[in-house]
Structure formats: structure tokens, C-alpha cells
Amino acid sequence: MLPVPILDVGAPHRFDQTLADFQLPLYRQTLQEAGSKACVLVASGDVWLEFDPLRIPPATCDITGIGMRVTPEVACHFGVYFVAKSAADSNTALPIAFFLQKPPPEVTYQHLSRYDFLVDTGLWLLSAEMVRFLFRLSGWDERQQRFTTPNGYPAHLDLYSEIGPNLGRRGQVPQRLGRAGWSDLTVGVIPLDNARFFHVGSSRQLFDSFGHLSLGNGVTKVYRSASPSKKVAVPPRAPVWLDGVATEGSLVLGGFNLVTGLPSTAGELRLASEQCLDVSPVRQIYYAFRPYALDDNLRGLPGTGATICGHDAKDWLVCRGFDLDSTDVFDAPIYPLVAATSITQALLDWFFAAKPDGRITELIQKTQKLSAAEIPNRFNFHRYFADRNVKHAAALLAEFQSCSETGDTRVFAQDFAAILKCCQNGGGQLRDWLQANHSSVLRRVTRPEYRSRFLMFMGELGAPRTQRFSADQAYAELRKAIVFSARRSPARPRLALKEDQIVWGRSPVRLDLAGGWTDTPPYCLEFGGAVVNVAVLLNGQPPIQVFVRPINEPMINLRSIDLGSSEVVRTYDTLGGFRDPRSGFSLPKAALALAGFMPEFSSGKSHGTLRARLKAFGGGLEISLLSAVPKGSGLGTSSVLGATLLGALNRACSLGWDEVNLYHRVLAVEQLLTTGGGWQDQAGALFRGLKLIQTISGPAQTPNVRYLPGHLFDANHANCTLLLYYTGITRLAKGILKEIVHDMFLRRFTTLQTLTLIRQNAHELFAALQRADGGELCRCISRSWDLNKRLDPGTTNPAIERLLRECGDDLIAAKLLGAGGGGYMLLCTRDAAAGNRIRERLEVHPPNSRARFIEFQLADQGLEVTVS
Predict the structure, then answer these.
(1) How far apart are CA 343 and CA 345, in angstroms?
(2) Is 0.85 surpassed by the pTM of this model?
């Protein structure tokens, strides 16, 4: 529950974040990656551990430790796994030879000729068999189904000190635990690469660890959480930690100070270097006042090395008239209960002084006091959280004021969904200020994703009557920014065809394998995106095709071959009616607009009517569209059709666009249609074959394409172990898209964490495809589907889940393609025989009359445009 200050404004964070917010998602993903053998994960609660959980292989042992490579000098503070040198290069769990608890460096060096070593990170994966074994060691009676101990609770068993040293071939089992069952257990350790491990269990460790984690602010590091007070003076080169500090008086710090819970009505205070203060709410109005020194151990009997406020505990107690020689320091009632206004410099000095003020000694002797052990039991949590929310709101208010006054936009890296909750739970002053000053904030903000975030936020906060905000305004702000780039480089169409020529554009569709959603604005604008997808032909053909031919009459004739419909466009009003994504011809109208047939996207001479524009162009156009894929397929057909049409218009109208221009224009088309969406669909079809597509943060979103070998999608795998199945269930992506994009707009902390894992999974799949690792391909596909469902449970539905169950154990992994909810599904099978069995099963018992298998093959060519 340790409050964690904001370390890096670019990373996902929240103003009320705790250590658990960062560690638990990693631990949950670790347990997910470890597979069915692991049913329990044990973790240490005072550790900040940074690692890539997607690198955790499936667990195969009853106890699987997770270790890191460090120096012997570091390892001497932890438990250490030793593994034989011959096994040290394996990528799976390494068999443990033995385990030593905090071995001196010289002991570790003695073993280096035969053994490699890994420090214990505190993460243990346990199988169901191991959990049962631990229960038995702790007194569990299987027959009676209870603990047959005197009090009915489990007998004490320390995993790290009693179980750890007994792991491996050379483990020494304590006599009290017995040897029964030990030989049946398998043990191993997974090495973590590129990981960082920090202890945060003591006051000094906070500074040491966060000094490595934090970017800091110059040479001064102020770790601040729920601390709106501005009257804090800090030293130039030493860190301080402030949590819940709201004093209206000044606070002067000497460095390496931890100050927590200081109320606003406390007096002016000065703390020398390494002096710390905790103020805890108890009862209705009082606080437990607990000063301490940075390295106080807070344990032990007086005279045995225990310290209080940096002094020997016995001397400290005697000087202050306490007769507590036989009481552990932790249980000594020495911390007074005081009102906030009684928190003064004199009271603070009394705790740290070598010769305390006798008058204050008399006063404290008469005051009710608590021990360090008692404070948690008397803690008033209702007051604590109510006060904390007020302090959070005050700190956020200061950030918004700074934005309004100076243009400082750091507050926009916050989780605005959490800020909404703060405004509703005691943050009335913040809400009132935002409602009164929203215009001044908007004037200072230029980045489109920030403006959209604020508009979305104000729409949900509830603006004053003078100004109504809505989610539509937020989407429109982002749409305007993306479309602006197209307006900034307007097109000048010129007929480049002979009267009897036809332009033929044809494109593959894309199967998205990993990374989907990271390509979607506003996420990609802030963090960049990474997607692995593959361009494929269906039934041997490019399924998206467009035909453009010139006609004499100044009009645009639109025809859909697959829908059997047509429409004639003669006016700007008709051409501009592309806002409805359910319209059969909204997409070609938007594409034509961007091709320069609408005034706002056209360069050169303006024309009052579309008829005049087409006459100057040299005549009209007949455009025929063919999509041999059902609408709502999940194959990105809308964007691919847009790219194909723009590619055909590019040739017919001599627009001079390259693939990257087309890619950007399709993104603008999607925004014009108000469907939103990302860039991976058009990139999947514009660029051939199997590839990783990446962008960096910023408005440009220019794709960096890295092509991959297609061995796992060749004839030995496509339609054999990799099956493409049309589920017969269609959906429009806009519904799912809006829910997830809404959370992107508000920068919801948990959504960003999931998107980070989705992006990491794309890189894991990229590496697996380079190695032609079929097993890892299936694992990444499965993970991709799980992460999509975590992002939005509506990604799947009961019909899809029934279909997957019908496939049985022959199925290794599957995912719906696109945004989910229906359409096409990629099925990964154990082998070709398993693929045949699944094919037979679903052909006999299809989920509906439309469902069917579709033959696919890798497309070695992206968009193709030719002229007759």
C-alpha cells in the first residue's frame, strides 16, 4: 500500500498510485504466463520489481522460483539459487542444485567454478501439489478437511527461511518438517533478463531505490504524493519524501526527510537531515505524533542496540522520564496524541534533542500516548482517506492552475478518470474551479490529444450552464487535428486516363496477430504503436478491388458490386454526406473529398459547384467497388477499401501520392467517417506479407515497417495448422472502439497498463517469427486474445465461446480478428491432423448457416494498381 510518487510523466500513472498498482499487474501476468501447472504466486510485499512478464515460460515444476543475475556482493543480502553451469544457458526453468540464505560473497565465489547463481526475487510459483504439501506441513488433515492444530489455524511455516533452503539436491530438511513427500516435488528457477529489483522496506531503502527509479528534477529529488503544500524548502542536493503534507506554515527540510500526514493547521517546522515525521489520525480529531530518525530500527529492548530518534533507546527513555527498560521499543507508549494545532517545532525538537525541554516532558507525561505497535490498531481510516482525497484534490488544483497560468501541461499525464472520481469524493473545490476556469485551461493547451482529454473530462464532470461539453466534442477535436494534415497538403486532381482506360486497384486484407489497439489515436499519438499483422489473399485472390473509369458527363457514378447498389453524385452537398458510416457510399465520398473534389481539400482554382469542378477536371468518374468479404469481418476491410480506392484515384487523377501518403490519407478518411480507428488496417494491406509496423509518439504517425520471414504462414501451415474461420457473426467495430477509445482519452491507468502489455506482445511475436518458433507464435496469439478481452470483455460473446469449446483440445490458441465480437477467427491447432479434426467438427456443427472455413495465403504484394 506504499504511496508511490510520480516518477516519469510519460508512463502510465495516477495521482493516488501505490506500489501494488505497479506490481500486481506484473504478478497477475506472470501467473497467466506460467500456465496451468502454476496455481499460486507468492510475492514479497516490500519490493519494486521491474521485468517483462511476457518472458516467463510455462512452469513445469512444483516450486518455480524466479531469480535475477547479480554480483555476489549484492546477493549476500538475499536468498540465492545455485544451478549447475551446464544448465545455465537454458531458456526454461533451471534445475536447482541448492539454495543458500544470504551467503557471504566469499561463499558464493567458492561455488562459481561449478555453479551459476541467481538471487531470489521473492516470486515463487507453486503447483496445486505443492500447495497441498504446504497445507500438510502446517497441520492440514485431508480426511477431516481442517487444520488439526490446537487453535485450528495453520501452524507457522516460513516459506523463505524454512522451505527455500531445502530446495534442490543438497537441501537440508528441518527435522520438525520431516522428509515425507519432499522427494516427490520438482523444483526449478526461471532467470529474469533485463530486470531491476529494489527493496522499499525501510526508510533509507525508499531513497536508495527511488533514486535509481526516478528521473528526478535536476539534482533535487522531491518525492511528493497527496502533498499540495507549496511552502516547502528543500536542500539542493538531497532527496525528501512528502506524503499527505498540506501545512499552511512553512516546512524547512535538511534532506533525507520523510514527512507523512502533516495536517494543514500544523505550525511551522524545521527538520534536520535524516529527521522524519509521521502524523497519523486517531479518534475523531487527534493525531498520533511520531518523529523518528531515518535509520531507527524500532525494535528491541533498551540497551541492546535499539534506537529512538537516532539516540540509544535506553538513554532516550531515561532522559524523558520513561521507566520502560523491560519493554520492546516497538511496544513502548511514547508517541503523544495531539491536536493539529499542537504540532509545533518545540514538540518536534523534544524528540530529537540530547537534552529535552523539561516543561514539554511534564506535558507529554500527562498526555495519552500510543506505542508504534498500537498506532495501526487505533488508526482512523475514514479520516485518513477523506483527508487524503482533499489533499489530492488540492494538489491537482495546483497543477491545473499552473497549466492555466503558465501552460504547464504535466497534469495531462494523469488518469483523468481518477480525477473525476476525486472530484466526486470530496474534491468539490477542484470541481468548482474547473467549471469556472475551463476556458483558460483550454486556451493554454495545444496538443490535440490533451484538448480532447479535457473536453471529454469536462463533459463527464458536468460543466456550468454557460458551456456544455460532450464526448462528441472530444472526438471532433482529435478528428480535426488528424484531418488538418490532409487539408494542409491539399490535392489537385487532374484526369490522367484516356477515355477508354480503366484503373484497377486490388488489395489483400490483413490478419492482425498482435499489438492491435496500440495503433489507435489518441494512444498512438502519446506512446506510439507496434503491430504485427500479415497481408493475405482469400481463396487465391485479393478480395478488395476498385475500378475507376472516366465518363463524359460531369458526375460521379458510385457502384457497389457486392451490395448491388449505386448512387449518382452531382453536388457538393451529396458528396459531403459521408458522416454516416452505415451509408453504403460514405467511404468513397470521403475518399473523393480527400482526393481534392471537395473545396476544403483542393488546391488551385475554386469552383462554385461540383459540376464546374468536374468539367475543369475533364469529365466525370465511374467508380465500382468490390469487397469479397462480409461487412464487420474483422479483416480491416473498410480501411483497406479506403486505401485501395485512394490508390486507384491517385493513379486516375495523377495525385502523386506514395504508400505513406496513402496510409495517412486513409487515417483521415476514417476520421471523416467518425468511425475513428487506427492505422494498422491500411498498413496491413499497403505493405506486403508479414511485418512489424511501428510508430513513435507524435502527430505524424509515420510507419516504420520491418518485414519478417513468412515460414510459419507457408503452405505447410496456412490452412493446415493455422485455420481461418468465418464465424458468421458480424459487428461494426465502432461500438467496441468507442468504449476503449473513451478510456484512452481519459488516460485510464489500468487501460494504459493493458495497452503496454499489448505492445510488448507485438515485440515478443516479432522475435518469435524471426526464429520461426511455432509454439511461441501460438502463445503470442493466445496472449493477444486474452489481452483484448481484458481491455474489453465485449470483445467476445457466448456464441464465440461455444465455438471455441467445440474445437476441444486440438485447439492451442485462437483470436477473433480485428476489434472482436465476431467476424473472422484465426485458429491455431496442435498439428495438421488436429486441424483436420477441428475442420470436420465445425463443418458438421457450424454455429450458424453462414459460418465456413476460408482458404488464405500470404500475399507477397500489397496494394497493386494497374491501368488497362
Answers:
(1) 7
(2) yes
Please check whether residue 164 is in contact with residue 174, taking contact to mean a CB–CB distance below 8 angstroms: no
Hey, which bits of 127-268 come out as E strands?
Answer: 140-141, 146-147, 187-192, 196-199, 222-225, 232-233, 240-243, 251-253, 257-260
Question: d(Cα 706, Cα 276) in Å, to the nearest integer?
Answer: 53
Chain centre distance of CA 543: 35
Q: Contact 377/288 with Cβ under 8 angstroms?
A: no
Please give the grid coordinates belonging to residue 765: 511475436
Angle of helix 448-461 relative to helix 428-444, nearest 10 degrees, comes to: 150
Q: Which cell numbers in the block locate residue 175?
A: 527435522
Kindly compute the dihedral angle of the four CA atoms of residues 386, 392, 397, 402, in this order, to the nearest 10 degrees: 160
pLDDT at 278: 97
Give the CA distances from residue 244 to residues 232, 395, 862, in Å, rounded to whole numbers and listed in that order: 13, 10, 57
Grid cell for residue 353: 534533542
Handedness of CA 785, 788, 790, 796 (dihedral sign): negative
CB atoms within 10 A of CB 567: 16
Contact 168, 44 (CB under 8 A): no
3-state secondary structure of 601: helix
Alpha helices in 425-522 (DSSP H): 428-444, 448-461, 471-488
State the pLDDT at residue 91.
60
> Is the bond preceding 522 in cis, omega lying within 30 degrees of 0?
yes
Mean pLDDT by runs of 10 across the 868 residues of the chain is 81 90 95 95 92 94 93 91 78 86 94 93 94 91 93 91 79 57 84 89 91 59 84 88 90 95 93 97 94 93 92 94 91 96 96 95 94 96 92 93 94 94 88 93 92 92 67 84 76 93 97 96 93 97 97 96 92 86 82 93 86 94 94 89 96 94 90 83 94 93 95 95 93 70 93 96 97 96 96 89 94 92 92 96 94 96 96
Q: Reading across the β-sheet that carries 620-627, which strands appear in turn?
A: 565-569, 556-560, 620-627, 544-551, 503-507, 864-867
Q: Where are the alpha helices (DSSP H) in 86-202?
A: 105-111, 128-137
565: enclosing H helix or E strand: strand 565-569
- Cβ contact 320:363 at 8 Å: no
Enter the C-alpha cell of residue 427. Answer: 474534491
Q: How far is CA 559 from CA 550, 623, 798, in A?
A: 14, 6, 37
> How far apart, in Å, are the Cα atoms of 133 and each of 79, 142, 186, 252, 434?
22, 11, 12, 55, 58
Residue type, 600: E
Whether the Cβ atoms of residue 822 and residue 802 lie closer than 8 Å to each other: no
Task: Name the grid cell of 785.
Answer: 486474445
CA pair distance 144, 620, nearest whole angstrom: 87
Residues 281, 166: Cα–Cα separation, whole Å: 44
- Integer Cα distance of 828 and 775 in angstroms: 10
Cα 348 from Cα 489, distance rounded (Å): 67
Please state the length of the chain: 868
- Cβ atoms of 226 and 392 closer than 8 Å: yes
* Nearest residue to 326 (alpha-carbon basis) of 296, 297, 303, 292: 303
Long-range contacts of 788-794 (CB under 8 A, 24+ apart): 788/516, 788/517, 788/758, 788/815, 788/816, 788/820, 789/820, 790/754, 791/517, 791/740, 791/751, 791/754, 791/755, 791/758, 792/736, 792/739, 792/740, 792/820, 794/735, 794/736, 794/739, 794/820, 794/821
Q: Other CB atoms closer than 10 Å to residue 600's CB: what's the count?
A: 12
Scored b (16 or more CB within 10 A) or e, 375-403 reads: beeeebeebeeebbbbbbbbbbbbbbbeb
* CB proximity list for 357: less than 8 A, separation 6 or greater: 346, 349, 350
Which three three-digit cell numbers place residue 728?
A: 458468421
